[in-house]
Amino acid sequence: MTLTQAEKAAVVTIWAKVATQADAIGAESLERLFTTYPQTKTYFPHFDLSQGSAQLRGHGSKVMNAIGEAVKNIGDIRGALAKLSELHAYILRVDPVNFKLLSHCILCSVAARYPSDFTPEVHAAWDKFLSSVSSVLTEKYR
Amino acid sequence: RMFATYPQTKTYFPHFDLAHGSAQVKAHGKKVAGALVEAANHIDDIAGALSKLSDLHAQKLRVDPVNFKLLGQCFLVVVAIHHPSVLTPEVHASLDKFLCAVGTVLTAKYR
C-alpha cells in the first residue's frame, strides 16, 4: 500500500493545521480510545487515565510527535519510525488490532476540529497514511 | 471448512454449488493452492509472482481483507490434519507468516 502524490499532499496539508493543536488532539484521541475501547487501557496500568491527566497529555504529545515525524518523512515512514518500530516489537508489543482503533480515534478528533477540510478524499488519504504508520510499527513483531 | 465455519464468506460465491464435494469447490481450491505454490516458488518476490492476482482482487473481486486471514487459518488447520508431524510450532509460525504475506500482497492494490 503506497501513498499517491495526491494523498501525500493531502496528509501534509492537513498536518499543517493539525500540528497547531497536536497536543490537544493527541490527548483527546487517547481519551476517545480509552473510553470507547476500554480494553486498550490494559497497556497503561501505570497511568492516571482521568480526563486532563498530565500523563495522558504527555503521551498524546509523544504519539502526535511521532506522526509528525512520519508526515515530515512521508516518503520513508519506515526509516523515520525505525526505532519506534523496534520499541513496539521487542518491548511494548501492543496487539496490532489496537493501532486501527487509535487511528480511528485520531481521525475522529481531526474531523471534529476541521470539519470542512476533512473531505472524503482527505479522509481516505489520512486513513491510508495512518494504516501505513501502523504497519511500520507492527512489522518487526515477527 | 471456511464456508462451514465462517458462513459469511459464502457471500463471494453466489454462483457456486457449495455443497460438500462440489466440483466447483474442488476446482477453486485447486486454483487457490496453485497460487500458493507460485508464491512459495517465488518466496522472495511474492508481490511480483502474484501481481496479476493482486490486480484481480483489487479491481474485480474486492474480497474484504479480513477473509484472507480466515482462509489462511482454515488452510493451516488442513495442513495440520494431513501433516501433523511436519507442523511444528516453528513451521506453523513460518507458514502463518507466509500466508499473511500472501494476503497482504493480494490486498495491497485495493487503494
From TrEMBL, chain A:
One annotated Gene Ontology cellular component of this protein: haptoglobin-hemoglobin complex
All residue ranges annotated as the Globin domain in the record: 2-142
One Pfam family per UniProt: Globin
One GO process term, biological-process aspect: hydrogen peroxide catabolic process
Keywords for this protein: Heme, Iron, Metal-binding, Oxygen transport, Transport
UniProt-listed SUPFAM superfamilies: Globin-like (SSF46458)
InterPro entries: Globin (IPR000971), Globin-like_sf (IPR009050), Globin/Proto (IPR012292), Hemoglobin_a-typ (IPR002338), Hemoglobin_oxygen_transport (IPR050056), Hemoglobin_pi (IPR002339)
Gene Ontology terms, MF aspect: haptoglobin binding; heme binding; iron ion binding; organic acid binding; oxygen binding; oxygen carrier activity; peroxidase activity
PROSITE patterns, per the entry: GLOBIN
Family: Belongs to the globin family.
Biological function: Involved in oxygen transport from the lung to the various peripheral tissues.
Protein name as catalogued: Hemoglobin subunit pi
UniProtKB/TrEMBL annotation, chain B:
Keyword Membrane: no
Keyword vocabulary terms for this entry: Heme, Iron, Metal-binding, Oxygen transport, Transport
PROSITE patterns associated with the record: GLOBIN
GO-annotated molecular function: haptoglobin binding; heme binding; iron ion binding; organic acid binding; oxygen binding; oxygen carrier activity; peroxidase activity
InterPro entries assigned: Globin, Globin-like_sf, Globin/Proto, Hemoglobin_a-typ, Hemoglobin_oxygen_transport, Hemoglobin_pi
Pfam families noted in UniProt: Globin (PF00042)
Domain of life: Eukaryota
GO biological process, one term: hydrogen peroxide catabolic process
Spans traversing the lipid bilayer: none
GO cellular component: blood microparticle; haptoglobin-hemoglobin complex; hemoglobin complex
Domain Globin: 1-111
Role of this protein: Involved in oxygen transport from the lung to the various peripheral tissues.
Family: Belongs to the globin family.
Name of the protein: Hemoglobin subunit alpha-A
